[in-house]
Design goal:
There is one protein chain. This protein has 445 residues and is α/β, with parallel strands linked by helices. Helix content is 24%, strand content 18%. The chain has eleven helices and 18 strands. Helix 9 links the parallel strand 7 and strand 8. Helix 4 packs parallel to helix 5 and helix 7 runs parallel beside helix 8.
């Protein structure tokens, strides 16, 4: 791939970010986020929303129930690889799991840890199959006290953000000492409060090329943060179509995050509320009756803004496998990427280009599509239709610019068109929307 074209008015800090991100993160565009730990399989280990085996009260109970961590890691890595994810994130410790560290840490500031090492095998298994591994760390002192174990950091540390930040720095140092260069990136939760502002710099000192993502960071708080993450929506906004989350980012959400950045961001929807609630409980609205829902969310995340990635949160089962009801959704993503991968890998969204995405209307024929643009060849666009034209006629709004060629990406068939504000297609691959979840038209200018 050729170097990514520089963005307009790119600052020195953003140029450095773009350089780091362009190695594997931006070209990959799609990863899986694994919420694994004492809350694995459901609920919250602290508040005990669910009994075992859906949540575990202590690290000892969790260790006793889990298989060999190497088998868990192989399953996590294999699921990501099979779905077409280019990277995967594991929760080293999480507030919902009582902040129990998933390896036998020697840091006294973290009071509770597992006896088994789940982190090292995850890093190794992902690397073995070509999936870039990232590690999640919580940048806040919220213990969500577990009634069985009590808080996982001493009260004086929990009460002082600066001391908690220092404890997290030491944990980062320990991760470096234990696992060397295996981590490819870090995902920092909690909005990166002042007490933890030094954490990205410590990561950068240990792993100069690592990707650092900060959750709910609508502004990049320091130069060593590479991307923000948009986790929550304005619930008063009803997406149209229902899988298009891009219209839901309107105001400050529950975590204090405002409208996200056009570039250097990612979306992290949660197809099963992050964790597996058991075979009998329903999925979140939209996912249960449409195996293409997650795929269409991905298409909209990648093709409605700019340099965005898609990083859905998956709650694996205790053995690291994906819950059965989520497998068809990941299978749909895999099957789509098998023939449409070039419309996803190495692309960006349409922000700042002359091709528009969203709903279009051609003589009363409504259609909805996202748009991606190749990073190595800005003259190539992909219109990814997730709602087929209601009357078989589709307008691609290119602000009057006429493409040299329009092609059905799956078959290679050249598509005839006439011009209006862009090419109007009368004979498109609309059956692919029902068969694969999306149809892709390649436009070459």
């Amino acid at each position: 791939m050729k170097p990514i074209a520089p963005l307009p008015r790119l600052s020195a800090a953003n140029a450095a970010r773009l350089d780091r991100l362009s190695g594997w993160y931006l070209p990959g565009r799609f990863g899986l986020f694994y919420h694994y730990g004492l809350f694995t399989g459901g609920g919250n280990a602290a508040s005990r929303w669910k009994p075992e085996p859906l949540a575990f009260p202590t690290p000892e109970a969790f260790d006793a129930a889990t298989p060999d961590p190497r088998a868990v890691a192989r399953n996590l890595a294999a699921a990501a690889k099979d779905a077409g994810a280019r990277y995967a994130t594991l929760t080293v410790c999480h507030t919902c799991g009582g902040q129990v560290v998933l390896y036998p840490t020697e840091r006294p500031e973290f009071l509770h840890r597992t006896r088994k090492d789940y982190v090292g095998p995850f890093l190794e298994a992902c690397r073995a199959v070509g999936v870039m591994p990232m590690l999640y760390l919580p940048c806040d002192c919220n213990n969500w006290d577990n009634p069985q174990t009590g808080p996982n950091v001493p009260p004086e540390v929990a009460a002082d953000p600066a001391r908690y930040g220092e404890a997290l720095l030491r944990l980062v140092d320990e991760i470096r000492a234990r696992y060397g260069d295996l981590p490819a990136g870090f995902w920092l939760d909690g909005g990166l409060p002042a007490g933890c502002l030094a954490v990205p710099g410590r990561i950068r000192a240990h792993w100069p090329r690592a990707v650092v993502v900060a959750n709910c960071a609508d502004t990049l708080a320091c130069d060593d943060v590479d991307a923000g993450t948009t986790e929550c929506l304005d619930e008063s906004v009803v997406p149209d179509p229902p899988y298009d989350r891009s219209d839901g980012y309107r105001k400050i959400n529950a975590w204090g995050c405002t409208l996200p950045r056009t570039d250097f961001n990612e979306d992290i929807p949660t197809p099963n509320d992050w964790w597996f609630h058991g075979e009998d409980e329903p999925l979140q609205p939209g996912y249960g009756d449409d195996r293409f829902f997650l795929l269409r969310q991905m298409v909209c995340a990648l093709g409605r803004r700019g340099l965005w990635n898609f990083h859905p949160g998956i709650g694996p089962r205790l053995d690291g496998t994906v819950p059965p009801r989520i497998r068809p959704m990941l299978g749909a993503v895999r099957d789509f990427l098998a023939w449409a991968g070039e419309a996803v890998r190495g692309t960006r969204g349409p922000a700042g280009t002359f091709v528009r995405s969203g709903w279009t209307n051609a003589n009363g024929s409504l259609a909805f599509h996202a748009v991606t643009n190749r990073l190595d060849d800005p003259s190539v666009f992909y219109a990814i239709f997730t709602e087929a034209p209601s009357k078989g006629l589709a307008l691609l709004d290119t602000m009057g610019r006429e493409p040299r060629r329009a092609t059905d990406l799956r078959t290679g068939r050249e598509l005839p068109f006439r011009m209006w504000s862009g090419p109007v297609l009368e004979d498109g691959p609309w059956g692919d929307v029902a068969a694969f979840g999306a149809a892709v038209v390649k436009l070459e200018f």
